[in-house]
Amino acid sequence: MGGDGKALSGTTLDPGASAALRDQLVREAASLGSAMQAAQWARAALPAKNTLTASDARLVEVAFELRLSSFETEGAPRDSGPAAPETPERAVRTVGFGIGRRRAPQPQWQGY
């Protein structure tokens, strides 16, 4: 995120700088210790992630998704129902970090 924790908004970094920032954000995501910490980190890291090249941004999103999934498997079973809106897991999904987005159901194509 840079020395002061702020990234330039509305700009895309050159590939070398993007790769360096990507590596930093992936390391930070891997070190997150809780879903609450992940939610806070995602909010803070979003401006920096948005300066990455598209492929680097996607790699950061995947690293974050993997780390977040580890918190879900450590907690309650998945079949316990949806998380309440105020839970850290829900907070992370509403940050807009590119995770937790529900995709529209794909049409079921039948062979004709």
Structure explained in plain terms:
The chain has 112 residues and is mainly α. Helices cover 52% and strands 0% of the residues. It has four helices and no strands. It has helices spanning 15-30, 35-49, 54-74, 88-93. Helix 1 (15-30) packs parallel to helix 3 and helix 2 runs antiparallel to helix 3 (54-74). It is elongated, with a radius of gyration of 16 Å. The model is unreliable at 1-7, 90-95 and 99-112 (pLDDT under 50).
Give a summary of the structure in a few sentences:
The chain is mainly alpha-helical and 112 residues long. Helices cover 52% and strands 0% of the residues.
Structural class category: mainly alpha
Written as H for each helix and E for each strand, in order along the chain, the element string is HHHH
As residue ranges, the low-confidence spans are: 1-7, 90-95, 99-112
How does the overall form come out from the CA principal axes? elongated
User: Average pLDDT, to the nearest integer?
Assistant: 75
Task: Evaluate the radius of gyration.
Answer: 16 Å
Fold blueprint:
Elements: H1 15-30, H2 35-49, H3 54-74, H4 88-93
Helix pairs in contact: 1-2, 1-3, 2-3
